[in-house]
Structure formats: C-alpha cells, structure tokens
Amino acid sequence: MTKMYLGVLKMAETFDVVVIGSGPGGYYAAIRCAQKGATVAVVEKAEIGGTCLNRGCIPSKALLASAEVLLQAKNAGTMGIDVAGVSPNWAKMQQRKEAIVGGFRKGLTGLLQANKVKVFAGTATVTSPKTVVVESAEIIISKGIIIATGSVPVEIPAFPFNGQIIISSTEALSLQAVPRSMVVIGGGIIGCELACVYAAVGTKVTIVEALERIINTEDKWVSQVLERELKKLGIDILTNQKVTSVNVAGDTAKITLQSGQALEAEKVLVAVGRKATCDKQTIDKLGLQMNGAALKVNEKMQTNVAGVYAIGDAVGTTYLAHGGFAEAEVAAENVLGGNAKIADYSLIPRAVYTFPEIASVGKTEDGCAKEGIEVIVGRGFFKANGRSVAHNETTGEIRVIRDKATDKILGVAMVGAGVTELAAGARLLIGSSEKFHDVSFPHPTVSEVLKEAWEDAFGMSVHQPPRAADRR
Ligand code: FAD
Q1: Runs of H (alpha helix) within 40-89
Q2: Residue 443 known to be catalytic
Q3: Which of 219, 321, 406, 444 has a 20 to 30 Å separation from 212 between CA atoms?
Q4: 313 C-alpha vs ligand 1 centroid, how far in Å?
Q5: How confident is the model at residue 76, as a pLDDT?
Q6: Is the pLDDT of residue 193 over 60?
Q7: φ/ψ (deg, to 5) at 90
Q8: Taking a C-beta distance cutoff of 8 angstroms, is the pair 1, 22 a contact?
Q9: Out of 3.30.450.40, 3.40.50.150, 3.40.50.300, 3.30.390.30, which CATH number does the structure's domain 356-457 have?
Q10: Residue pLDDT, tens place only, 122-158
C-alpha cells in the first residue's frame, strides 16, 4: 500500500466535508472543496487514486503504449527503417507500468497535502449524516459527506474469479508472464483494450461476446472497423456466443460456449462490466435509496439523505473517470451550499484505447434514428489525410452527425489512430451549427479529418467530391 499522509485520530476531529474514496471522483471533489475554502478529509481503504490510477485507466494505458511501440517497431520496415530482433520484454513493460502508477500516486498524495486535505487510511462507515467512523476513530462533519466508493468487476457466479486462471482486469494488468492463450469474455471497452495488449505481445486471444457485436454502445460501423482491425492483430472474435462453463484443470481452462463449441486457454479474463459498490453498513445506517447496486442520486448528486452526496462509479452512471470528475464538480459545489446540476451525460466523451482508438460524444446515428431525428452525416477519412498517410495510419474515419431540421451538430464518432485526443475538440462542436469557416485547423494534422467530416455534414468539404444536392 502507498505510504500516505496518515491522520492519527485520537479523538473526534471536525471537517466541513468528508469524502469517502480517493479515486477520480473522490480526490477531485476533495481538492475542489478545499479550493473553495472548506476543511476536507478523505478516507481511503486501499491505495490513493482508486481504480483509475491503480487498476484501471493508467496501468492499462501504460501497457497499451508499450504494445503500440512494439507493433510500430515490427512495422518499421514500411516506414523505411530496418529494425531487427524486435520482441517484448514483459517484465520491463510491467516495471514501467508500476513506475508510472507509483509516480502518479506520489504526486496525488502530495497534491492532497498541498491542498491541506487530510487523508485517513482505513474503511469508512457513515453512521449518521454528521459522522463517519474510520476503524475505531470518529470524524464529525459540519457541512456534508461525498461518497465516492467506486465499483468492482462483475463476476459470473457459475465460474467465479480464482485470481489465477479465471481473472478480472485487476489481475490481467499485472500477470507475471505473457500467457500463450487467453479467452476474453466480454467485447466491451476493458475486454477489447486488454485483448489488444495481449495480442500485441504474442498471446492467442479469443474474444467471446454475447451480443451481436463488440463495443455495442457505439454505431455499427464503429464496431465493424474495430472488429476488422482486431482480426488483423490475430484476435479471434466470436459474437452472439455465451460462455456456459469454465472448467479449470491444472493450469488450463476449458471453456464451453452455448453453441457447444469448446475452447482452451491459459487465462480466462472475465470483462463483463463493473458494478457500483458502497459499504453495506453505510447504506443501512443512513437508509440510502439504491438503484440496483448503485446509490440513487438526483441531478445535483444528492442522495435521499440531506447533506449526503454520491458520485463516480458508485452512482453507476458513466463508469468513466472523467464522468466522475464531472459529478465531483457538481457535488463539491452543492455540498458547500451551491445549486449546480449535472450536464447532459451524452456530452461526456466516450473513449476506447484499442488499436485503432475509438472516441465519440453526443448522440449516435442509431440513437437519432430511434428518436426519429432526421440527420445528415458528414464523413472524413484518415486515408485522405496528409499527416495520417505520412504516419502510415490510414485506418478509420470520423463522422459528424448534423440535425437536418436545426443544423445543429448532435454527435461525433471517430475511429482511428489517436482519436481519443480529438474527443474534447469534438465535444465543442456539439450544439453548434455551421461555424467551421471561423476555425483554423493546422495543416497537416490528423485533426483535419474532423474538419473534413464537419464540413461534409454541411456539404462543404473542399477535399471530397461534391455530394448530393439535398445536403444543405
Ligand atoms: P474508484 O476509482 O473505484 O475509487 C473508489 C475508491 O474508494 C477506491 O480507492 C476504494 O478503495 C475506496 N473505497 C471504497 N469503499 C471505501 C470505504 N468504505 N472506505 C474508504 N475507502 C473506500 N475510465 C476512463 O475514463 N478512462 C479509461 O481509460 C479507463 N480505463 C479503465 C481501465 C480498466 C481496466 C478499468 C477497470 C477501469 C477503467 N476506467 C476508465 C474506469 C475508471 O477507472 C473508473 O470509472 C474510475 O476509477 C471511477 O472513479 P471513482 O472515484 O468513482 O471510483
């Protein structure tokens, strides 16, 4: 466990605000409250930084970055660079990942200290809207409590995690050696990202997805591009298939699908989602209303108990770190007497760090069709972009969705190298109408694919042949 600033409570101590959990939701809310002049305590039962820093966003991206360099080195010949003897060094990849995580943990601990946020190590139980108990000590709260207790991986009861062969993303991020084979149950974000890491370093990966396509939260074309590219990496993808049993014998698992098909693998990664979590005693003591496993909150991030707020994965909304940041912003404002409301959740960008990456924001084409909104879709292509061609990264496209009736941009979907970096820019387009003449995109940059798609949504792309007359 990280060495942290440990408050030793001999007697009850009073703070304006107590935040439970130090993940993206918790630490962000704590620092914001401190910036607004409140005295703040954070209680954390494990490592500072929560899932995101220790078992999620950061370690997964560190491994993906190493895997990407490996793939680039293997393909260096196409760029005119001869490289011999390229191979992954898994132990060093792991060390690098640990060093990155450790560095950020230290940085975050320092940041909390610098903001005079006191961190208590231990499990917090809320005993009343004005008291939190940490182990045997007590904290008194004058203004409010923010619960940011996060989530845990969903387990399949028929074949629970055993930490060795049937594993969750937590173990998958820290395997001692590269497995020869891995079956990934679940073709969602976490499953697909980890499939990319392991396929790149030489594991034979098979994704088994119960639905008809992987990354089913995005439009069908997005899934199709990703599926095609993952197959090129050597990943087998079985859709419309459910795993019915996993039997472990020695160091191998035998996996049976509903269709009767049998697979064998050294590791079975169960990546079928995450489940909000909150200490049961806290729920019972306060009489908190629930929404399944998640804490029920209103748009002000208030629970049903006055002065008690909840944010992040614990409220089961976005299951994204930056979703937690957005909710933390609202809770921090309100716990100190403000009246903030969470913005439209569809304006929180979605990002998948696969090879190639996926990013989107706002409405999808499918979503618009379901709502009966008539749209015009502008398209921009990486294969027509100078920078992308120079980098030999020509896969993918960007689509900008325009409301035909109002001219407003409703959504943007992107698949291609580095598109997650364009997501915040794409967000700024949502709700705007034709303004692209005013915005200069540097040339040549990958961002010009977004400009092409934006212009094309208005039938005004300079670099594409004219489209049908009804586009305007
Ligand atoms: P958490 O980060 O889970 O933090 C909750 C904290 O509360 C934990 O540290 C826990 O120990 C503590 N806690 C719980 N109960 C108590 C208690 N009673 N007392 C004291 N402490 C308690 N999201 C993204 O946006 N981008 C990504 O690229 C991304 N990649 C991911 C990759 C993986 C493999 C995984 C698993 C997740 C990923 N996520 C990503 C999701 C992201 O990690 C979560 O959405 C985010 O961590 C949620 O933040 P949180 O603050 O709500 O909870």
Answers
A1: 50-55, 57-74
A2: yes
A3: 321
A4: 7
A5: 97
A6: yes
A7: -60, -40
A8: no
A9: 3.30.390.30
A10: 999 999 999 999 987 899 999 999 999 999 999 999 9
